[in-house]
Design goal:
heterodimer, A: 816 residues, alpha/beta, TIM Barrel, Methyltransferase, Methionine Synthase (B12-binding Domains), Chain A, domain 1, 4 domains, 8-stranded parallel sheet, 8-stranded parallel barrel, 30 helices, 13% strand, B: 219 residues, alpha+beta, NADH Oxidase, 4-stranded antiparallel sheet, 8 helices, 9 strands, 41% helix, 19% strand, globular
């Protein structure tokens, strides 16, 4: 028998249809788990599979859509092993017994894997690796029982789909098909679109991808069209029987089996290689689809040869229209950045990211290499944090292979990888990762011999890299050559060599190029002048992507003007949109976290004559920063804190308690004070003074609770009142809180819980704290808590709002 | 169902921020407008509902066909009803990304965003509910105000039954955490009774609740 992968190259292949509604007709009750029928009513399941095979389906899906360790475990009637094994057995029996309409054919069994029913972190509470483990379990059992392929279906979250594909690939050698569920606008529920999903899945090396559920064939047609334009592997279309509506508690669909089949034929003619049905479709639907489509010629998508990367939300194509890669998340030569890494100050890094996005970056380079930190875990953490707040694709920039792999694994998309080069050893380390996780890799045109001096030499290295990559199945489209930007002050021909190499990669090799542009001006004064001009020259020579500082106005001017002049900006509309209202002078660097759309809010530049105290009271962040800087010239840091900042904060705090100041204002004041503190701390650090903290406080949102806004408000205020806050985050197990209190000898713990369902874990945390650290006090807060409720769970203090926790901390630490 | 007009009440936003009926100063008003603007861009509101036969049993037990529960408040709310609608709505995950973003970077904006998003999901539910109501009234059937698990003595546990019956995971993207929190966070599930008798007293969510000393109470 041919393998399913051979089969799909020769003809259109048919999936079966829906299961749920048919089982309901056979007596499945509301709330009853359909997978249990594999064991309780195997005859019904076998018959259902047979009906589909006899209607002409080539692939049947095992009845395992909801089978996972969350639903089937030691506490349930059947465990996951029994369910999945029985499901594959039923499918096998059907395959053996079926009377096939086309002689010589035999059905294939797809191990069906649906979503876990949970949303992954950080949006939900399921960890990526836990999801991976749950999928792995099903794959191991199903593959062991003899499934022919794995179908991962109805995925509405690209991240969960990635966990499932990794599980399928790492635990079996079966072909992997993936279908996702889009809404009528072509979006996944977690925000991805057809292009970004296709990039991610093809990067992971799936054998076929497509669309199922959610929509009927009519609505799916347009989404299918955009998928076939993006995809290089066969495309699957498994729609619902139409759009559903409820009639007297029963679901009915807006089209019938004949219409369904007619539209599926159109979709088949447009190039779908694998078609079938989802909810509401029956053997009748499939029979009609098969009879209309069985003789359609198969037209598999050709390789689109697009160089494309993606984030969870969008794809970025690297081609003629140049791509800006923000270079600022990198500690090289930045003492503040290095300090942020040492202090584990992720907020600093996130701000760098947001500022670059606001200033026009399309991709963010992420480099967190510093000898004294644990780079792999920092890299993983930073990637997770960045992708939770920014929708741009990331460029993973490291020479530490462990850091590279960990980042690629947790990345929700198809990343850029920085970098590989022509050295055998490096290629052998990097290419297997690209092969496994997907990605476009930056390839430096150098090797064991060093950096070739001529463009010829660099082209040769590029060719060598392409060749080696091909051995790993990595195409030219997923390699982007770094033609190497050499310092022009040490070699006056250096720039010309680089430009020639860029041009020839495009013209001679048909490849894509990238440059770290800023290197060109090293050692020269006013570097931006050289950088901006060289950047324009490189673009004219065909540069596809540039690693630059997007906060540099000079660089962005080159970028926008080049695009306008090179017919890449129709009607100069981007250029006009950016510059029609702008009066900035050349050379200006836009301040990080400054005036962009993301972090604007009140206060920029206003109130130039206000004192520091007044600026804090009014919540004017930038004015507070300036006022503190000015004050530092005439006053000591401690004087400023005690005479200006603390009184202002107290005044706002009192106003809040009286009800004349409201929460947003309280926080704006806190943020203004924080920006003043930053300047003051810098000054103190320079003069060697250590900032004295009043005490250390642990803050945590308890286990099971993922709403942490209240806790974060408290944190902002406590930090302003000179407390060292250890923020353990949300969904924190009691054990970690106790362990931290013990190891750091912390005397005050603040806990928050939002729901009645999570107060028990607050109670448990307090119980454990009492046992292990009897001298530690606990303050609690959260929507459902009251004074009385707090007492019943044995808390020391109930805090009705953020100021109450500050007051309690002040009172508590003044006693000890 | 699509977004209808989404006129988010600034007064509701201020109420969630603790302003009561007071006006906000200029800078906070500016922040509110900024948040509403960003939310309208980020949100992808989705909703789904189904109708089920309803039976009111003894001892305040209620049978929604796909699940049963016990609640005195809800029994009162569903008086004279023979059918019920199970309803779910959400603003989508991108709103949570926004909330997360500002929680990391600018808490003052995060709290305003939080309040604005709450006002937005309520407004969205109101608009959808009004549309459903109209549809039913054409058939001389009348909808009761929506009632959500966790209101009064309507057990939060029922969240599980409603999300399962409506298959909210794949239809609108609402999932439950182990502690029955909904993700995305700006989501609503509710039941609404359908009756042949018109309903006079238009008490909505907040006022219908018995917790009279709540800081966020509308009146």
């Amino acid at each position: 028998m041919k393998s399913i992968l051979e089969e799909i190259r020769e003809r259109i292949v048919f999936f079966d249809g829906g299961t749920g509604s048919l089982l309901q007709e056979s007596g499945l009750k509301p709330g009853e788990l359909p997978e249990t029928w594999n064991i309780k009513h195997p005859e019904v399941i076998v018959k259902l599979h047979r009906d589909y095979l006899e209607a002409g389906a080539d692939i049947i899906k095992t009845n395992t859509f909801g089978a996972n360790g969350l639903k089937y475990n030691k506490d349930s009637e059947f465990d996951i092993e029994e369910i999945v094994a029985a499901a594959v057995k039923n499918a096998k029996q059907a395959v053996e017994e079926a009377v096939y309409p086309f002689p010589g054919r035999k059905g294939y069994i797809a191990l069906d894997i649906g979503p876990t029913g949970k949303l992954l972190k950080p949006l939900g509470d399921l960890d990526f690796e836990d999801a991976y483990e749950m999928f792995s379990e099903v794959v191991r059992i199903g593959a062991g029982e003899g499934a022919d392929l794995i179908l991962i279906e109805t995925m509405s979250d690209s991240y969960e789909a990635k966990a499932a594909v990794l599980a399928a690939k790492e635990n079996s050698s079966l072909p992997v098909f993936v279908t996702t569920i889009f809404d009528s606008k072509g979006k996944l529920l977690t925000g991805g679109n057809v292009e970004s999903t296709t990039a991610l899945l093809e990067g992971l090396g799936v054998d076929a991808l497509g669309i199922n559920c959610g929509l009927g064939p009519v609505q799916m047609k347009d989404i299918f069209k955009s998928m076939i334009e993006a995809a290089s592997v066969p495309v699957i279309v498994n729609p619902n029987a139409g759009l559903p509506r409820s009639e007297g508690g029963r679901t009915v669909y807006d089209i019938d089996a004949d219409e369904f089949a007619a539209i599926m034929k159109e979709i088949g003619e447009l190039g779908a290689g694998i078609i079938g049905g989802c909810c509401g479709t029956t053997p009748e639907h499939i029979r009609k689809v098969v009879s209309l489509c069985k003789d359609l010629p198969v037209s598999l998508p050709e390789d689109k040869n697009r160089t494309v990367i993606s984030s969870y939300a969008q794809a970025v194509v690297i081609d003629k229209n140049p791509v800006i890669i923000g270079e600022r998340i990198n500690p090289t030569g930045k003492s503040k950045f290095k300090q942020a890494l040492r202090d584990h100050n992720l907020e600093y890094i996130l701000r760098e990211g947001v500022a670059q996005q606001d200033n026009g970056a399309h991709v963010l380079d992420v480099n967190v290499g510093l000898p004294e930190i644990d780079e792999p875990s920092m890299m993983e953490e930073v990637v997770k944090e960045l992708q939770s707040i920014i929708d741009l694709p990331l460029q993973i920039d490291t020479s530490n292979m462990d850091a590279m792999e960990r980042a690629m694994r947790v990345y929700n998309g198809k990343p850029l990888i920085n970098s590989v080069n022509g050295k055998q050893e490096v290629m052998e380390a990097v290419f297997p990762l690209v092969q496994k996780y997907g990605g476009v890799v930056v390839a430096l045109a150098l090797d064991e011999e060093g950096i070739p001096e001529t463009a010829d030499g660099r082209i040769k290295v590029a060719e060598k890299i392409y060749k080696k990559a091909a051995e790993y199945g990595i195409g030219r489209k997923d390699i982007i050559i770094d033609a190497l930007c050499m310092t022009v002050s040490s070699d006056s021909k250096g720039a010309l060599t680089t430009l020639e190499a860029v041009r020839r990669v495009r013209d001679d090799l048909g490849g894509k190029t990238i440059l770290g542009v800023s290197n060109i001006s090293f050692g020269l004064p006013q570097r931006e002048i050289i950088n901006a001009t060289f950047f324009a020259m490189a673009l004219q020579n065909g540069l596809n992507a540039a690693i630059i500082n997007p906060n540099s106005e000079a660089m962005m001017r080159s970028y926008y003007s080049f695009r306008a002049l090179a017919d890449l900006d129709p009607q100069c509309s981007d250029y006009i949109a950016v510059y029609s209202g702008q009066v900035a002078t050349l050379g200006q660097t836009v301040k990080a976290g400054g005036s962009g759309t993301g972090l604007s809010a009140s206060g920029g530049g206003a109130g130039d004559d206000l004192t520091l105290g007044e600026s804090v009271e009014k919540g004017l962040k930038e004015r507070a920063h300036t006022a503190a800087t000015q004050l530092l010239e005439i006053k000591e840091p401690l004087e400023i804190i005690n005479e200006e900042l603390i009184p202002a904060l107290d005044k706002v705090g009192k106003g809040f308690e009286k009800g004349t100041v409201f929460l947003p204002q309280l926080l704006m004041s806190a943020e203004a004070a924080k920006s003043a503190f930053e300047v003051i701390k810098e000054k103190m650090a320079k003069s060697g003074t250590v900032e004295k903290k009043k005490g250390t406080i642990i803050l945590a949102t308890v286990k099971g609770d993922i709403h942490d806004i209240g806790k974060n408000i408290v944190k902002v205020l406590l930090e302003n009142y000179s407390y060292d806050v250890i923020d353990l985050g949300k969904d924190v197990p009691p054990e970690l809180i106790v362990e931290t209190a013990v190891s750091k000898d912390v005397k005050l713990v603040g806990l928050s819980a939002l729901m009645t369902t999570t107060v028990p874990s607050m109670e448990e945390t307090i119980k454990q704290l009492r046992k292990t650290c009897p001298n530690t006090r606990v303050m609690v807060g959260g929507a459902v808590l009251t004074e009385e409720y707090a007492r019943t769970i044995d808390a020391d203090q109930y805090c009705r709002d953020a100021m109450a926790s500050v007051n309690y901390a002040e009172a508590f630490f003044s006693q000890i | 169902m699509e977004l209808i007009n989404m006129d988010i009440s600034r007064r509701e936003i201020r109420r969630y921020l603790g302003y009561g009926r007071k006006e906000a100063d200029e800078s906070v008003s500016f922040l509110i407008e900024e948040c509403v603007g960003e939310l309208l861009k980020a949100a992808s509101p989705k909703s789904f509902y189904r109708e089920y036969p309803l039976r009111l049993l003894e001892e305040n037990r209620i049978d929604f066909t796909v699940f049963q529960t016990k609640s005195k408040n809800l029994t009162k709310n569903l008086k004279d009803c023979e059918m019920s609608i199970l309803f779910a709505a959400t603003l989508g995950t991108e709103v949570d990304v926004l909330l997360h973003r500002y929680t990391k970077l600018q808490m003052s904006k995060a709290v305003v965003m939080q309040a604005a998003a709450t006002a937005m999901i309520e407004e969205y539910c109101d608009e959808i509910n009004t549309a459903i109501k109209k549809e039913y009234e054409e058939h001389d059937l009348y909808l009761r105000p929506r009632f959500s698990p966790g209101y009064g003595d309507f057990p939060l546990e029922c969240q599980k039954d409603i999300t399962a019956a409506l298959e909210t995971g794949k239809r609108v993207g609402i999932h439950l955490t182990d502690s029955l929190l909904m993700t995305p966070s700006k989501s609503v599930t509710a039941v609404m009774g359908i009756s042949k008798k018109p309903y006079r007293c238009e008490v909505k969510g907040c006022e219908a609740c018995g917790k009279k000393d709540c800081a966020y109470r509308r009146n």
